[in-house]
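Listing S7. Sequence submitted for prediction.
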Amino acid sequence: MTIFIAPIGVKTDHVKGWLKEESRDVTTLWLIHSKKSPKYDFPKLAKKLEKDLKLSYPQIEIKKAILENAFREDPTIDAILTIILDEEKHDPSLLRNEFVVNITGGTNAVAAGAVLAATFYGTRAQYVLEPQKGDSRKTKYVYELPIRPIGIAKMNQNQLDVLKIIAESTYEIEDTPKNLDSHKTDGCITRNKLLEKLGWDKKDENSSRKLGATKLTAIAKKLKASGNIEQINFIETYVDKNFDKKEITNISHGYTSKTKNKKHRANWEIVKNTNEVRYVVTTAGKRQARDSLMFNI
């Protein structure tokens, strides 16, 4: 039993060529296509392809799925994972190597998403070469990609909670002076703010260390090892290099007083504070958090 998954774009001949060589054990074919656009009617193209294929392969069940965005990888990965989970729900005996993803059709982003999906979820992946003039009748056009599945590492709830918070957070330089760049970074958070969001920021009565700090360090170590986050060992802050010129010291009759220097002009620079760290989610970590949020896996 084999289930084919084929993203398609304007061109669909690769699907016909694929089935011509590899249809022997195929029971189901999924066609993933975009919504109708001002330029192309993708649902109509998919329907025509389905009609043509049914004439040659009446034994194959053909299903269709909508691709939300053909110019980002995640929608393709989402569509393929949805298909895999749907098929496994109906037949729990299915093995992941019984799913074959075709990476030929669609945009570059769709092809990239198809390769990533096969890698993440342990399916096979195949590519269909375009026939060339002068090819012999024995020419083989379908090639299996040498993909080594990496799978998605299983996480406990604490690890997942930490990853989700990091992925959904935005880091920026605190107390950024007016009209200066706060250097916002999505998918990034400082350790102290992460402890607060987790509710692990209570301090030990006998020390200044937060009770959840050791726990978070251990979790972060595992998330780093699995390639889901990176750690930056400093945060940034704006410092006025002319701070000591903000006030003027006056000495009169033996008394010292200070007044505001009206001519003071701040000279801001960004400096590193190595007493704090921040965590940044990786592309793989974003995918892991997305899978958990959308598909509960």
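Caption to Listing S7: primary sequence and predicted structure tokens for the chain studied. The chain is about 35% helix and 25% strand. Residues 237 and 271 are 6 Å apart (CA to CA).
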